[in-house]
């Protein structure tokens, strides 16, 4: 089945020579228009921005344009394939940003493997964009890049492999625990894999109120705990993982995946493609009605039916052909819609929690073991999520243009609705060919 999608994707990319193009926003009906949009009229726009750079968010397209930036060191399940090979993935991301969020995104794979060089390039690009989406950058380098850029830039910087996955996971867990009648903040949680996504998932769960000691994390060498032999080297080479080795696992449990799952209420696996990474008997050893999130792509760490046979009450994967897809695409278009409309200067964990809670609320009326999150096709969730983010940014004093939930809901509905309608019009007019 996967080979079918591979072959079809290559054919489609060749047919269209890529997935997006830019089009003007303004009408051009006479030569006089050029005097307004370019010379001489544009000089006054530049003069005013030179006196107040924040006017660039009002007088140019910067307010709605972001960069999707990658060094190509960790592309999908392919690994370090290079900047050029990262381009189709970044381009696909830009397509989703536009269709589901109304966000104009520019794919920018760059040849900057060194973290400091990467940071320097992105900092130099700041005047061109209203936000930065980092993508497919190897760990632990991605943590340093995100931390430093978030501190030093005055626009939101986002790493989808960290923040997007963590936000979607939190939303899914909020609803999954409702189904099994447990409280997320008191749950025993095993995180299998300690890379970009699960380290940020641990961070967001703790910010949400989960007790750090109730989380047990497992990397390729086993359970993280302060007495592990590699703690000194980990402190130097990966201080982000080291931090969670110190603050999680209150009982100082040792071992590997089976030991981590014993007595757990929840397992979130974001490790490597399976199946067989998580075994049925390990799920059976979890607490009653366990929740299993097996998020590796293209093959989850355990097949959903195996997890169910082992007693799992709610099972989620990263795939669209199984129930309960935990999908970053439910998060990043809407989060950036809210951030951009509020002209936010950064993105915080409080905003991500607001987004996760809104996602969970949207799904709650139809909640079931096989429906804990909205599907990508339920576009009505995106304006609601954007509104939650913009309102939280405004509440925190991090918005250049403060907006209430209701104000942003109306703005996001109009922008996202127009984006979807534009696609329909272009297809019906034959400008985009089927």
Describe the secondary structure blueprint for this structure.
Layout: H1 2-16, H2 31-37, H3 42-51, H4 56-59, E1 65-70, H5 83-101, E2 104-109, H6 115-125, E3 131-134, H7 141-152, E4 157-159, H8 160-180, E5 189-192, H9 196-208, E6 215-219, E7 222-223, H10 231-237, H11 239-247, H12 257-261, E8 266-269, H13 280-284, E9 291-294, H14 304-309, E10 314-317, H15 332-341, H16 349-363, H17 381-395, H18 405-428
Parallel strand pairs: 1-2, 1-3, 3-4, 5-6, 5-8, 8-9, 9-10
Antiparallel strand pairs: 6-7
Structure description:
The chain folds into three domains: 139 residues, Malic enzyme, N-terminal domain (Rossmann fold, 3-Layer(aba) Sandwich), CATH 3.40.50.10380; 155 residues, Rossmann fold; 101 residues, no CATH class. Helices cover 48% and strands 10% of the residues. The chain contains 18 helices and ten strands. The strands form two sheets. The protein has a six-stranded mixed beta sheet. Strands 2-1-3-4 form a four-stranded parallel beta sheet, sandwiched between helices. Helix 13 links the parallel strand 8 and strand 9. Helix 5 packs across helix 18. The mean pLDDT is 95. Belongs to the malic enzymes family. It holds the Pfam family Malic_M. Its EC number is 1.1.1.38. This is Malate dehydrogenase (Malic enzyme).
């Amino acid at each position: 089945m996967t080979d079918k999608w591979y072959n079809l994707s290559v054919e489609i990319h060749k047919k269209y020579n890529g997935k997006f193009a830019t089009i003007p926003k303004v009408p051009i009906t006479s030569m006089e228009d050029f005097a307004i949009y370019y010379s001489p009229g544009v000089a006054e726009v530049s003069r005013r921005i030179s006196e107040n750079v924040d006017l660039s968010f009002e007088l140019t397209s910067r307010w709605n344009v972001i960069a999707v930036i990658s060094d190509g060191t960790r592309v999908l399940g392919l690994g370090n394939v290079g900047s050029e090979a990262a381009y189709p993935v970044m381009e696909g991301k830009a397509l989703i940003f536009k269709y589901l969020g109304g966000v104009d995104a520019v794919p920018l794979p760059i040849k900057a493997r060194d973290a400091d060089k990467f940071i320097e390039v992105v900092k130099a690009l700041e005047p061109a964009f209203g936000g930065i989406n980092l993508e497919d950058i190897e760990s632990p380098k991605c943590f340093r890049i995100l931390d430093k850029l978030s501190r030093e830039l005055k626009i939101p910087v986002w790493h989808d492999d960290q923040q997007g996955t963590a936000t979607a996971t939190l939303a899914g867990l909020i609803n999954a625990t409702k189904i099994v009648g447990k409280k997320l903040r008191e749950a025993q949680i095993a995180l299998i894999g300690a890379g970009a996504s699960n380290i940020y998932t641990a961070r967001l769960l703790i910010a949400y109120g989960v007790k750090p000691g109730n989380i047990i994390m497992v990397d390729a060498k086993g359970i993280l705990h302060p007495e592990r032999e590699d703690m000194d080297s980990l402190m130097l080479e990966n201080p982000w993982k080291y931090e969670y080795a110190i603050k999680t696992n209150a009982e100082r449990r040792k071992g590997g995946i089976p030991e981590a799952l014993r007595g757990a209420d929840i397992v979130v696996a974001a490790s490597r493609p399976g199946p067989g990474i998580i075994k049925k008997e390990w799920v059976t050893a979890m607490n009653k009605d366990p929740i299993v999130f097996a998020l590796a792509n293209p093959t989850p760490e355990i097949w959903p039916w195996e997890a169910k046979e082992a007693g799992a009450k709610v099972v989620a994967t990263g795939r669209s052909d199984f129930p309960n897809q935990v999908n970053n695409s439910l998060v990043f278009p809407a989060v950036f819609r809210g951030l951009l409309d509020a002209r936010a200067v950064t993105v915080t964990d409080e905003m991500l929690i607001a987004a996760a809670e809104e996602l969970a609320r949207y799904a709650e009326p139809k909640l079931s073991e096989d429906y804990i999150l909205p599907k990508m096709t339920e576009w009505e969730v995106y304006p609601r999520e954007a509104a939650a983010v913009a309102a939280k940014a405004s509440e925190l004093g991090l918005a250049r243009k403060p907006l209430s939930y209701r104000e942003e809901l109306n703005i996001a509905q109009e922008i996202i609705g127009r984006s979807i309608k534009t696609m329909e019009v272009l297809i019906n007019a034959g400008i985009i060919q089927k």
